[in-house]
Amino acid sequence: MVKKDKDMSGKQKAALLLISLGPEVSASVYKHLNEEEIEQLTLEISGVKKVESSVKEEIIEEFHNIALAQDYISQGGIGYAKTVLEKALGKEHAQAIINRLTSSLQVRPFDFARRAEPSQILNFIQNEHPQTIALILSYLEAEQAGLILSQLPQEMQADIAKRIATMESTSPEVISEIEAVLERKLSSTVTQDFTETGGVDAVVEVLNGVDRSTEKTILDALEIQDPELAEEIRKRMFVFEDIITLDNRSIQRVIRDCENEDLILAMKVSSEEVKDILFKNMSQRMAESFKEEMDVMGPVRLRDVEEAQSRIVGIIRRLEDAGEIIIARGGGDDIIV
């Protein structure tokens, strides 16, 4: 028996709505969903055994009310939609619908800035406090933020990178104030929400968008300020699976410098794409030997695999530092002639 409407999740309600609409309409809806959404809904639908008509009616009514609310919002905004719904459904029911809609309609902070040219943003933020710059960059697209960071004075770059990496949740009031200033400067509109941003992953994405010389300058300065943070960032800058981004000559150079045992261990649980590109850059004899070793190899500890991959990544970083291989990255210094 299906649960009551109020006890059901959004996915369960969506599944029951599709069942109620019939296979033809459901098939049309599926065309607008991604694979993950289709899989989740299909699982929910397959688990439904019996639906009470009252529950079905409640879900259809809820969907109808939300669709109406969206239409009202498009006509006259949230306030207009709320007024109309309150008159039709009562204050409490209307507020519940508006709350669900507004939570899904919120725009990530600095959405306007992500549509602006990096040079425009740089012009407006370069004289701001480093913490303000770090906050803004953490909300931009990684490549966009990397370009801006690389154009800031070198003495500021490491400080801002560190601030992004160590940033925690920021209050909506602070975000709102900074957005308002930038909004006026860029003459656009914004919608705010409360979002956690920053962290090591954020600064890694930013640094992956800068040129090699800027990356080195920032990490060298961070090494002095916070060695542990610098090391953590370096570890995440390039992972073993990223070996597929190297050109064939570079991959062959890496293979020559690696221990066979490390390569076999690292490839044991890697993707087929990684295995294929590595085998492609080995001699036929070496590739056959590796395949035989991997076939007869029993279960291996994940820690051993990770350590082997880490050693290979270390070799890749060393070869790049020595200028013997090139890792494709953002910025303008990766010109090969």
Overview of the molecule:
The protein has 337 residues and is an all-alpha fold. The protein has 3 domains: 5-105, no CATH class; 111-234, Annexin V, domain 1; 238-321, Annexin V, domain 1, CATH 1.10.220.30. It is 70% helix and 0% strand. The protein has 19 helices and no strands. Helix 1 (10-21) packs across helix 3 (35-46) and helix 8 (130-139) packs across helix 10 (154-165). The longest helix has 37 residues, at 53-89. It is flat and about 75 Å long. Mean pLDDT is 77; it is low at 188-196 and 330-337.
Reading off the top of the CATH hierarchy, the class of the largest domain is best stated as Mainly Alpha
Strand content: under 5%
The appropriate CATH architecture of the largest domain is Orthogonal Bundle
How do the helices and strands follow one another from N- to C-terminus? HHHHHHHHHHHHHHHHHHH
> What is the first-to-last residue Cα distance?
68 Å
| Number of discrete domains | 3
CATH topology of the largest domain: Annexin V, domain 1
Oligomer: single chain
What structural class should be given to the helix and strand makeup?
mainly alpha
Helix content: over 70%
Low-confidence stretches: 188-196, 330-337
Question: What do the pLDDT scores average to?
Answer: 77
Number of extended strands: 0
